Amino acid sequence: MTITLYDLPSKLAVKGWSPNPWKARLALNIKGLPYKTIWVELPDVERVCKDIGAKPTGTWRTGTPLYTLPIIHDDTNNAVISDSFEIARYLDDQYPDTIPMFPKGSHTLQAAFKEAHERVALVHLYPLMGVTMVRQLNAPSEHYYRTKKGPSSGATFEEVDLKGEARVEQWKKVREGHEIIASWFSKNEEGQFVMGKDVSFADTMLVAWLRVVGLIYGEESDEWKAVLSWQDGWWARYLKQFDQYLAVV
């Protein structure tokens, strides 16, 4: 059995900078499945996807197919799966003796959690990621990201980057969003995962995004230290549970 994970590289020591591939990587690591990584710069993603038969995951504004990573290729049955959510579902089905990412009956609830996470926290985080993230990319991907995924206004990432009090207020919204999410955990009767004592794909959503914040800002940055201090260190304790699953291979 050989599983290949297609991911996006960067200047970072661990290379991986994109939250969605991190979700797939976490799922593979939690399940203990052996795999290898092929790194693909952003301008090459569409070509690579077409070469291996990966399906598009959306459309551009022009209506043309949009190809994204992560993708896995499992040579056990020559399966090629796009999208981190679908990858986790496939791994559950194909390798039922591993830790499930979708415990029985949880698919709908986890899909709803994904939308809630977006509305409560990520929508506030996005404006704080642009310029910090793009500067971590290798030259081909940085150029692609700036030209293809830059602000819709036509301004540069630097020009729309929040500064001063506006930036402070934006981080406050991110913190408040995570306070709401942390309050959901308090409803569990036991355990410290989204689904109580059982880890699930919903946890990879939270961990992937916060992992990327720590990577692109740096572990010694004021921003990351602030994240770890939220809710009296609750998020630091939550993330600590996943240290064993952060290996990049």
From TrEMBL:
GO BP, sorted A to Z: glutathione metabolic process; L-phenylalanine catabolic process
Organism: Athelia psychrophila
InterPro entries xrefs: Glutathione-S-Trfase_C_sf, Glutathione_S-Trfase_N, GST_UstS-like_C, Thioredoxin-like_sf
Pfam family, one: GST_N_2
Positions of the GST N-terminal domain: 8-99
Gene Ontology MF annotations: glutathione transferase activity; maleylacetoacetate isomerase activity
Annotated CDD domains: GST_N_etherase_LigE
Protein name: GST N-terminal domain-containing protein
PANTHER family assigned to the protein according to its UniProt record, in alphabetical order: MALEYLACETOACETATE ISOMERASE
